[in-house]
Amino acid sequence: MSETPDQTQQIIEDDPIAVRRAKREALIAAGKDPYGHAFKYSHHLAELNERYADLEDGASTEDEVQVAGRVMAKRDQGKLAFLELRDSSGDMQLFCRINALGEEAYRQLKDLDVGDWIGVRGTMMRTKRGQLSVAVASFELLSKSLRPLPEKFHGLADKETRYRQRYVDLVMNPEVKQVFEKRFKIVAAIRRYMEEQGFYEVETPFLHPILGGANAKPFVTHFNALDRDYYLRIATELPLKRLLVGGFEKVFEIGRQFRNEGMDPYHNPEFTTMEAYQAFSDLEGMMELTQGYIQAAAMAACGTLQITYQGQEVDLSGEWPRKSMIELASAGAGEDVSFARTRDELAAILEKNGGHADSAWGKGKLIAEIFEAVAEEKLIQPTFVIDHPLEVSPLAKKKAGDPNLTERFELFICGHEYANAFGELNDPVDQAERFRAQVEAKDMGDDEAMGYDEDYVRALEYGMPPAGGVGVGIDRLVMLLADAPSIRDVLLFPHMRDEQHAPARAGSMSSNGPLDCSIPHMGDETPAGGRERAAEAVADAAASGDAAAPAAFDFSKVVIEPLFEEQVDFETFSKSDFRAVKVKECVAVPKSKKLLKFTLDDGTGADRIILSGIHAYYEPEDLVGKTLVAITNLPPRKMMGIDSCGMIISAVHEEEGEERLNLLMVDGRIPAGAKLY
């Protein structure tokens, strides 16, 4: 059956993209280019707003201007039309009259769409209602927008779209651009400060044959010309210190690092650092340098050293205090934390404070972990934490008089690390021994340990002068100075999961039937496996009211845990209160690689907090807005100092030797608090 012209027109009118494409084709058919050419503007809109700020209401001028920008709004009043134009500096109204433009040009102007780019010639005026405007004498289309801008682009539910389509985010949320303008000022201020201190900016390789400079999981790529695997760099430290051997006295590099690890509000696998090394300096020199470039960045971005980060007042002025890690760990734990304690005693202190002691860790690593568990988050004002254990500082010089400690500091602000510095180790024999210890750790299963860099040891054997070195996380510093809650807010193009979701691979639940899955696993006890994303295609389709059949899946690879043989009586089982819950907010728990913190609507009107150890399988922002299943009548369980009130239900199975987990996501039309039977 063929479509009638009326049917075709109705389809087009119902599809705004089709309407815009039809306009594009009509322009081309009329011999007009819908994508324009260069346009020489005379002013930015902000400049005009400032220059004509005192123009009286109802006044007109003969001052001709040429401006260009994107149409952000339209209002048609017969022979008058008002457009809102936005350029890189701000917004301004366009005052359009049929008498000034002529009937044909006015018709073309009314045919413009919100989102189109135009160039405008006209004169400055202010309407009787006080709106500064450009009285349009002529215009030209510079670029046709085929996709309509969203009407609303704010709110938690839109965060993933904002990060994924940053170009739309920048259009709809002008304040976002201010964050990246601050980022530019911060980086520029740091660069200027370093140059003023006599440092040379250098560039070192992104591809490294040996893993070194930090403890981190690498990205691996294949170098075809050399027919071997290389690592994307995890740090710039070792190449920069080779330059000190070669005779450079002060060097720094601002550049990307790559660590193949998880994502959370403070970590992204691809990030930017500034690392600097200075011959003949020490830890004190690095503290002075670090305080200097951070204060310079704050003044450039904020105009003050008194800032606010997420509601916390921070004073970046004055001299920042120095405190030892052992001192802070002991104060936070409420008992002595030192090398005088036995390993078992230190492990017990860590476990008591919510951490987990790995059997391969020595006293130094345990002390560092205790500090992280009990003291880090309390360091709100800028604090240099000094005297780190040797075990966690393989590239730092030993502290004179105490071989267990090193010349190292980490700068903490608002409970997070911002800079890391060493009195650099320049003894090649000591360095070789520490590299060998790292290799042994790697052989024992530590996939973040460094390799043995024979060439770097050889460089030290030629002699490297005493030196200080420091690295600062640029992204995290921008977060601080721009008051941004997530690292994704300060990255123009943060990494995201694929938009196309794989089909669900585990048990599901219908809106009117019982659970159909294996015995649910305790969410907060789930072992972290490979980061496998549970699929949501079926649940998403249900939420939209559409039926969707899951794609075929090879279940021959799946191993299901045997059913329990021991029976439970019906009365006992029925005491478990299964409810549908809506995810209002989901964030990673600080200091935990596994835990996600869910804020849930359980139908009671009060938020329910549940922690679940599923970060290996899901990113928190992907779960916001989903409808899950939870047991709501379990007693509160304290995890990382937070009461977890219930358990989110998952389905688990084993596949190719790894445990896989899928949250149970149900029909979005099910109301929060609906009881499951």
Automatic annotation (TrEMBL):
Pfam families: tRNA-synt_2, tRNA_anti-codon, tRNA_bind. The keyword tRNA processing does not apply. Mg(2+) 2 binds at E417. CDD domains: LysRS_core (cd00775), LysRS_N (cd04322), tRNA_bind_EcMetRS_like (cd02800). Residues 572-677 form the TRNA-binding domain. Gene3D superfamilies: Bira Bifunctional Protein, Domain 2, Nucleic acid-binding proteins. GO terms for molecular function: ATP binding; lysine-tRNA ligase activity; magnesium ion binding; methionine-tRNA ligase activity; tRNA binding. It is found in: Cytoplasm. InterPro entries: Aa-tRNA-synt_II (IPR004364), aa-tRNA-synth_II (IPR006195), aa-tRNA-synth_II/BPL/LPL (IPR045864), Lys-tRNA-ligase_II (IPR002313), Lys-tRNA-ligase_II_N (IPR044136), Lys-tRNA-synth_II_C (IPR018149), Met-tRNA-synth_bsu_C (IPR004495), NA-bd_OB-fold (IPR012340). One of its GO terms (biological process) is lysyl-tRNA aminoacylation. Binds 3 Mg(2+) ions per subunit. Its main location: cytoplasm. Its EC number is 6.1.1.6. Residues 185-494 form the Aminoacyl-transfer RNA synthetases class-II family profile domain. It catalyses: tRNA(Lys) + L-lysine + ATP = L-lysyl-tRNA(Lys) + AMP + diphosphate. Its cofactor is Mg(2+). Keywords: Aminoacyl-tRNA synthetase, ATP-binding, Cytoplasm, Ligase, Magnesium, Metal-binding, Nucleotide-binding, Protein biosynthesis, RNA-binding, tRNA-binding. GO terms for cellular component: cytosol. Mg(2+) 1 binds at E410, E417. Homodimer. HAMAP family: Lys_tRNA_synth_class2. PANTHER family: LYSINE--TRNA LIGASE, CHLOROPLASTIC_MITOCHONDRIAL (PTHR42918:SF15), LYSYL-TRNA SYNTHETASE (PTHR42918). Belongs to the class-II aminoacyl-tRNA synthetase family. NCBIfam families: lysS_bact (TIGR00499), PRK00484.1 (NF001756). This is Lysine--tRNA ligase. It comes from Rubneribacter badeniensis.
